[in-house]
Amino acid sequence: MPASKRRFLPSSRAVITLGLALLAGAMVLFLTRISFLHLQELFTGLELRTVDYRYRLRGPQPPRSDIVIVAVDESSIKRLGGWPFPWDVPAELINTLTAAGARAIAFDIFYVDAGRQGTEALAEATRRSGRVIHALYQHKEAEKTLGPEEQAALERFALEPRVRGSGGVHTFEGLSPPVATVARGSAGLGYVDLPTSADNTFRSVFYLASCQGRFYPSLAMAVALFDLGLQPDQVTLDRGHALYLGAKRRIPVDEGGSTLINFPGEAETYKPQSLATVLEDGRRRPEAVRRQFAGKIVLVGATAYGLYDVRASPFSRVYFGVEDQASALADILNDRFLREARPEANWALLLALALLVGLVAPRLAPLPGALAAALVILGYDLVAFELFAHERLVVEIVPPNAAVALAYVAILVYLRLTGERERLRLRATFARYVPEQMVDRLTRISLAAMLEGERREVTVLFSDIRNFTAMSEKLQPEDTVALLNRYFTLMHDVVWKFDGTLDKYMGDAIMAVWNAPTDQPNHVEMAAMAALEMQRQVEANRAEWAFLGMPELRVGMGLHTGVAVAGNVGSRQRIQYTVIGDDVNLASRLQDLTREYDVPILVSAAVYEAIRHLVEGELVDTVRVRGRSGEVPIYTIRTKTEN
Q1: How many CB atoms lie within 10 A of CB 390?
Q2: pLDDT band at 416, cuts 50/70/90?
Q3: Which of 623, 569, 636, 602 is nearest to 461 (CA)?
């Protein structure tokens, strides 16, 4: 296969690490959606905490100025004679607010007990106002049976939405309207119940729910329908996706039919007005009440702690139910909803982040890899916050973070396990070529970086015994082997002494390389010193060989430095680390020329210029070498101590 194509094929290790990353992501997806050991609840709880943190990190936002809360607070209860109030009190409030020009009045208070004092007054005030929306009471089906008038009132305010899709819709077992006379005069009815989570924090609203086969709006939605002038049949529900209010609003809903509330801030962001104070001002200062409430939507609800309409929100552990209704209503009127990313989008993000770790982690050492994984998590979390704060999009944080962490740990474990095996293989491979201290250095370097082909500057030495073929014909085979073994041992020790890589034996010839596979800044000097020492060893052992009856050895050596391709070369059955290229061939050619010029060492000009301060040398000739244009200067060298 051509090298240009092979570069684009992933290595087996890359495929495995990417597979591990995907497996880690898939495992997190599985764990977030099973109930085993309450893992789903754990992930959901942690994710909701990150949503709360995003609210707080974003900070408060200005509330709508046309939404006002009138509160049944501690002061009102004391001043109006205790709770529950006679129904004359809400009747008077309706008359006061209607006279002041309020455009809608909604009660987050139930008026479902027939026969209470002031019932007729409340019914009459509701009817005359024409802008009052009352609350539906949610109950178990077995707890209450509706009479004909109550059932008729309830059905009157049921919506008639066009329904499509297959997502979920929240269902009540039973809903009760206010007493019949009050319900008949109402401009709308809506339930006030909100979905809660395992940590008892209210974050969402069901704008639409079903009960006994019919659909009903929440209190906030009932007010919005009235304010926007929409009819019950102008609502469309696309289950699991959106709720359409005519052509005026598109409310996103999740698979369960709920929508996150875009809370503006902490408790009392809407600055509740005391009910008792509003009534007193209405009697004594109607103009002041008109300035305060003209053109406003008024929500009436309890903020006194003893009335138990206190709940937790993302901003505060103390938040009042009527404030939830105000926030949910403001989202519709502002048309600024929080949108939750679709499950498939969250899955895609999770797997993409896991794959990113799978691409990056194998290329880094453990500590930088851990830092890179942490930066991926941090970067993603910052993006998630920006999407929440500026695009009102909620993407999952905990599962993607868990996938990144698990993917990195899985890849790290795999690399550690395979890395040890690679180091042993590397040691076994290079122990034949390089000294022990270089093997230790090599085992700390990526195996792939060394065994894949790379271009690098190297110094190559070729050594050959002159006339060895004729010499060996005069010796017994065992003597020939003994001579070569002794000679190779001496040369091998010298190459390793000067940190060379013993590339190969070729009959009686030796090939050694410097600056491969590891960097050696002084590789030219080391190679030249090795050549001179090899010649000294040949001279020093002449007496030994003569004593053993061996012939006199003369060795020719050629050195050249240049750029070569270094890497593992061979077949599937046999592979060897070596260097190849035109500069390698030149070193071999210089070794051949030592016979012609009868000198022990010949070096190229590139070698001589790098070591001339260390040796004595002289120009031997300029020669033409096959494959090179122009003539090549060649030098012989010797140590400075020689004469």
Answers
A1: 9
A2: confident
A3: 602
Amino acid in position 456: R
The model scores a pTM over 0.70: no
Burial of 79 (0-12, 13-18, 19+ CB in 10 A): middle
| Whole-angstrom distance, CA of residue 163 vs CA of residue 214 | 12
CA distance 536 to 260: 86
CB under 8 Å to 7, separation ≥6 — which residues?
Answer: none
DSSP β-ladder status, 132-139 and 188-191: parallel
- The answer to whether the beta carbons of residues 442 and 538 sit under 8 Å apart is no
Query: Residue 142 is encoded by which pair of tokens?
Result: 């077995």
Tokens of 235: 């609502």
C-alpha atoms less than 13 angstroms from C-alpha of 438 in its C-beta half-sphere: 23
Phi, psi of 206 (to 5 degrees): -95, 105
Phi, psi of 73, rounded to the nearest 5 degrees? -100, 180
Alpha-helical (H) ranges within 392-541 are 398-430, 436-442, 447-451, 468-473, 477-497, 523-540
Question: Which H or E run contains 577?
Answer: strand 575-580
Residue 211: strand pairing partners: 172, 214
Domains of the chain with bracketed CATH: 3-52+341-425 (no CATH), 66-339 (no CATH), 434-639 (3.30.70.1230)
Is the pLDDT at 366 greater than 50? The verdict is: yes
Q: Are 498 and 491 in contact (CB under 8 A)?
A: no
Alpha carbon of residue 222 to chain centroid: 41
Spatial distance between the Cα atoms of 232 and 239, rounded to a whole number of angstroms: 17
Q: Is the pLDDT of residue 643 over 50?
A: no
Spatial distance between the Cα atoms of 605 and 612, rounded to a whole number of angstroms: 10
Q: Is the confidence at residue 598, as pLDDT, over 60?
A: yes
Q: Enter the DSSP assignment of 452.
A: S
Query: Model confidence over 9-61: pLDDT tens digits?
Result: 446 777 888 888 888 888 888 887 776 667 788 888 899 999 999 999 999 99
| Cβ atoms within 10 Å, residue 528 | 29
Contact 17, 361 (CB under 8 A): yes
- By C-alpha distance, which of 641, 635, 640 is closest to 614? 640
Q: Are 221 and 332 in contact (CB under 8 A)?
A: yes
- Decide if 338 contacts 259 (C-beta within 8 A): yes
One-character DSSP codes across 256-272 = TS-EE----SSTTTT-P
> What is the CB neighbour count within 10 angstroms for residue 430?
21
